Amino acid sequence: MVWKRSPVGGVLFVALACLSYLFGTMYIVTPWFPLMLVRPTWYRWVVDKLIAWYWIFLVALLELVYGVKVRITGDSIKPGERTLLIMNHRTRLDWMFLWMYLIRRGQLSKEKIVLKNELRKIPGAGWGLETGCFLFITRRWEEDEKIMKKILDYLASIGHKTQLLLFPEGTDLTEYTRQRSDAYAEKYNLPKYDYVLHPRTKGFVYIAEKLIKEQHLDAIHDVTVGYPDGKAQKEADLLAGRFPEEVHFHVRRHPLNTLPTTPGQLEQWCTTLWAQKELQLKEFYQKKAFPDTNVLEGGKPGDPLRELKMRVVLWLSILFFVTVILVVPYMMVTSTSFCISAAIICAFYIAQRAVFGGAEHFQVDLYNTFHKK
């Protein structure tokens, strides 16, 4: 239908996304906070599953309602595998579309993302991202190093099978950021790129080296994303209804025993990957597809039952969250106690951010105080 890719459809998508995350965080995730005090690993498992259920809802909207198609080639993430996913940052929304890959070839509930600190300020969604224990960075290395160490140590301490998403480029590809990347290339006598930005390797090297040394990494997955027919560069494009027709992912798995171990080697390894990614994307935009290696479109090839099960889960997520979006406002209008509970929950999130700096710090500080040996 035409309205889906118009401002009407765009506003509806953003409204459903924001309301479901706000109400879901307040009334589905927050009640589990006391479990954090007695069983931190159980709490992390439950909350990660609940947050992933919300992400499944967004995937369901994108695929079933707005008709966004996904094409996946390359490798999967093995069950229970601890991995660092490094991905080119073509748009500001690549992380959302990556869920279409993870729901098929990874573990959506285990994903954590390295994000800009500004994203925690998104009403409702920011609380949910904090509760998910994501890594918010400020781009001040002295501070970011402490943040990454704190969160990664916590996840390792509870035995979390983390699938950590990092964008080494640091920002999405635009004309302005390409010019900055070109200036960097000129300064250091490097080639200029058209399809990627030169990676900022400091954060990647720190994370990879730390995970390797602490034996909390099984592989690195190199993810390349491409949009053959239109893209949503930023949030305003979603509001305008400019959804991509297709999203393509090509993934290469690099096992632990093939990875370099020294900082200098890791930096060169990442730089080489990005040079290869530039050539890969040049070919992609000429042919409008990645090479047909281990192709997966919508489900496992030759496994229609798997695809059917996934579609059932997607439709159930739509039914569930649409119900939540309708019921919560009704309860707020008809029940004084429900309104009071909403005020208390909002006050809690505002207070913990003021005191601890965010729900992720609140969780980790409680764990370190009462459980860490």
TrEMBL record:
Keyword Phosphoprotein part of the UniProt annotation: no
Family named by the database record: Belongs to the 1-acyl-sn-glycerol-3-phosphate acyltransferase family.
Organism ancestry: Eukaryota, Metazoa, Chordata, Cephalochordata, Leptocardii
Superkingdom of origin: Eukaryota
GO biological process: phosphatidylinositol acyl-chain remodeling
SUPFAM superfamilies in the cross-refs: Glycerol-3-phosphate (1)-acyltransferase (SSF69593)
Keywords for this protein: Acyltransferase, Lipid metabolism, Membrane, Phospholipid metabolism, Transferase, Transmembrane, Transmembrane helix
UniProt GO cellular component terms: endoplasmic reticulum
Coiled coil: none
Transmembrane regions: 12-30, 50-68, 312-332, 338-356
Protein name: LCLAT1 protein
SMART domains with a match to the protein in the record: PlsC
The Phospholipid/glycerol acyltransferase domain, residue ranges: 83-205
Molecular-function GO terms, alphabetical: acyltransferase activity
Source organism: Branchiostoma lanceolatum
